[in-house]
Amino acid sequence: MAQDSEEYGAYMHKFSPPLQTSSSFLHQLPLHGLTFAVKDIFDVEGYVTGFGNPDWAQTHSAATATAPTVLALLDAGATCVGKTIMDEMAYSINGENVHYGTPTNPSASDRVPGGSSSGSAVSVAAKLVDFSLGTDTGGSVRVPSSYCGILGIRPSHGVVPVSGVTPMAQCFDTVGWFARDPVLLKKIGKILLQSHEHDTNNLTRPTQFLIAEDCFRLLSSEWEKLIDVLHKSVAKLFGGDTMKQINIGKYVEDEVPSLKCFMHHGAKNIEENIPSLAALSTAMRLLQRHEFKKNHKEWVTTVQPKFGPGLSERIWEAVKSTDENIDVCHSVRTELHAALSSLLGDYGIVAVPTVPGPPPKLQTEPTTLETFRAKAFSLLSIAGVSGFCQVSIPLGTYANLPVSISLLAKHGSDMFLLSLVESIHSTLKENAHAVGILPPSES
């Protein structure tokens, strides 16, 4: 598929006419006048859900119904303009697709856009739509949000319906969304999180704000600046007594005993990775492979589809994997959820880097890329394994590359987290600017 330079190669299909509600009360609906796009993992009636691979598209029929999340947004008055490109079978955080082309990252055109929700993130970053839908299993909303310099939320696991969405690994699959401003990010949350709204929608003061210093030390440079930005912003809005630095890796190691099974997989050099979080990532990836195999082994082995480099090895490794230690992986999930719930309480926050550095260059050498991926999954596995909600927040650019941080909150505290992000967003950017992190137009 040839890329349209004006559309940054983001789309698989443009809907003509666009999908919208037929409500006679259109002007009264909360998302009236807004446009959105959806990752090609969501069912849309009359269209084949392509799952990022042409062989998948050729061996599956058109959807007979539209995913409930898409219908909810249409019913709220938004207009859906198309389906976006994604990584094959949602099994990457890079955003490169050998079959359909790699969407161009509007924030750094020589860098990957991040996956697997690459086209959805690019469509928002390039201002082609107001917001978009993606999915996040291992990091597929949070990573492209960070790489493309926009906001993105991975909601609490299980709070947004995943029916009508092709499964990757059900223990981790979530429906997330992208936007350029926190007001809209929260407005979409009010539509998709309705059954999980609390009376605390407008509560924006955290009881504690924990900064995971060990995670920030994974960054190749400038990590002190990001901690300084967080300190100043939290002190200004909530007071210094709210804030504390924490070694999250040590806490996880102490409070999640089942991780000992995987600790030998962790890096011994703390500068390369955090051993307990590397072990957490190992547990996440083992369980993800196990569920992917259950979902898709029959199709992969029967069709023998063509996959791109890197993806092919990863997918076949999953298909041929054993069920060793799967029970332990489930124990890790349960223990981590309990440990972080105890640590944060109802309205605590933990801040981490979304990813361990700027987006890698296109076609980065595989060994270098794998080292980066390992660090990334250590960070991403905290919310992924616990099921907690996480929002990636862009701060601006440094050396012409996007910079972000993430805030995590307890499972089910999604609206609280979205309200907090709305209240802290502008202060974070102001303090980031003061330490040399510039708005994109100034870098």
UniProtKB/TrEMBL annotation:
InterPro entries: Amidase_CS, Amidase_dom, AS_sf
Amidase domain: residues covered: 28-417
GO molecular function, one term: hydrolase activity, acting on carbon-nitrogen (but not peptide) bonds, in linear amides
SUPFAM superfamilies in UniProt: Amidase signature (AS) enzymes (SSF75304)
Pfam families named in the record: Amidase (PF01425)
Similarity comment: Belongs to the amidase family.
Name this polypeptide is given: Amidase domain-containing protein
